[in-house]
Design brief:
Layout (H helix, E strand, L loop, with lengths): L1 E9 L5 H17 L3 E17 L2 E13 L2 H11 L4 E8 L8 H7 L38
Antiparallel strand pairs: 1-3, 1-4, 2-3
Length: about 140
C-alpha cells in the first residue's frame, strides 16, 4: 500500500455536523476500499486565494492514509460529484529515506548512493573546470552615486 495525503476544501456555509459527516463518509469509503487512515486533521476556516463559486473562505481538512493505488480512482470519482466540496487534492507522500547511511553501506545496501544528494557531513566536490574570479568578470562595474 502507498501513503497518500488528501486535502479537502469544504463550503464555508456547511454546518459543523454536516462537514464532520462528510469527512467520516470519505474515511469510511477509504477503509472499505482496503485503505487505512493514519491521521485526520481539521485545519478550520481559512481565506481562499481567489473566490470559488462566490465563496471567499473554505473549511480545510487533511486526511493522511494508506491505500492501494487502484482505490484512488474511485475516491477521485466520488469526490468530483460531491456538492459540499469546493476543491480536493490527493497527493502521494514519499516515505523518508533512512537517516543512517553508514549502516546501509556496511550491509551492502548502498548500491544506489549515486542517486542521493550528499549528506551534510560529506564533502561536496567543486565542479571541475575553470573558475572565474568575480574581479575578472566582464560585467559592468557597479554605478557609483
Amino acid at each position: 500500500m502507498r501513503r497518500y495525503e488528501l486535502m479537502l476544501v469544504l463550503r464555508p456555509d456547511l454546518a459543523d455536523d454536516k462537514s464532520q459527516a462528510l469527512v467520516d463518509r470519505i474515511t469510511r469509503q477509504l477503509t472499505a476500499a482496503g485503505g487505512q487512515i493514519v491521521k485526520v486533521a481539521p485545519w478550520g476556516r481559512r481565506r481562499l486565494a481567489y473566490p470559488i463559486d462566490r465563496h471567499r473562505e473554505g473549511s480545510y481538512h487533511i486526511i493522511h492514509f494508506e491505500a492501494p493505488a487502484d482505490s484512488i480512482v474511485e475516491l477521485e470519482r466520488s469526490l468530483l460529484i460531491t456538492e459540499e466540496l469546493l476543491r480536493h487534492l490527493v497527493t502521494r507522500v514519499e516515505r523518508p529515506v533512512k537517516a543512517s547511511r553508514s549502516a546501509d553501506q556496511a550491509d551492502g545496501l548502498g548500491e544506489d548512493d549515486d542517486r542521493l544528494p550528499p549528506s551534510e557531513d560529506e564533502e561536496y566536490d567543486e565542479p571541475r573546470g575553470e573558475l572565474i574570479d568575480e574581479s575578472e568578470s566582464e560585467a559592468a562595474p557597479a554605478a557609483i552615486d
